[in-house]
């Protein structure tokens, strides 16, 4: 038969073979993907588990920090002692911090004295003098 006598859409490419069906191609691709996934799973399952080792590590360096700069006055914990988080391990001394504390105490005393002056007013003699001036000004105004 010639191409002219065949109905449209029935052409046989590649020397008379029928065209491959899409469903067969999709099934083949899915089958290949499944086989690859199974091979990867078998490879991962056949690997030995990671080794675990238990033991103790001896260290020589310990990092401790404080919130203020100071010098160590007394150690409360010694090598080999068990300590917990938040437990004091040393007593610190800081001359700068003590001086700053004394300065703040002096400022508090000064502020308290200024507050007392503001609450009590000036000396009673000054108040009496100003009151007499005010009364005399009132008398002159009448």
From TrEMBL:
Keywords from the UniProt entry: Membrane, Transmembrane, Transmembrane helix
Region of interest (Disordered), ranges: 1-20
Superkingdom of origin: Bacteria
Positions with biased composition (Basic and acidic residues): 1-15
Regions crossing the membrane: 23-45
Record-given protein name: Biotin/lipoyl-binding protein
């Amino acid at each position: 038969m010639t191409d002219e006598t065949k109905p449209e859409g029935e052409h046989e490419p590649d020397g008379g073979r029928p065209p491959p069906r899409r469903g067969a191609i999709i099934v083949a691709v899915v089958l290949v993907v499944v086989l690859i996934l199974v091979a990867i799973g078998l490879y991962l399952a056949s690997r030995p588990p990671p080794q675990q080792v238990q033991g103790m590590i001896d260290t020589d360096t310990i990092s401790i920090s404080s919130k203020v700069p100071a010098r160590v006055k007394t150690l409360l914990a010694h090598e080999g002692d068990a300590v917990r988080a938040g437990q004091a391990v040393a007593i610190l001394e800081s001359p700068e911090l003590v001086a700053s504390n004394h300065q703040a105490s002096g400022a508090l005393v000064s502020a308290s004295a200024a507050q007392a002056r503001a609450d009590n007013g000036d000396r009673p003699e000054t108040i009496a003098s100003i009151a007499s001036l005010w009364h005399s000004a009132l008398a002159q105004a009448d």
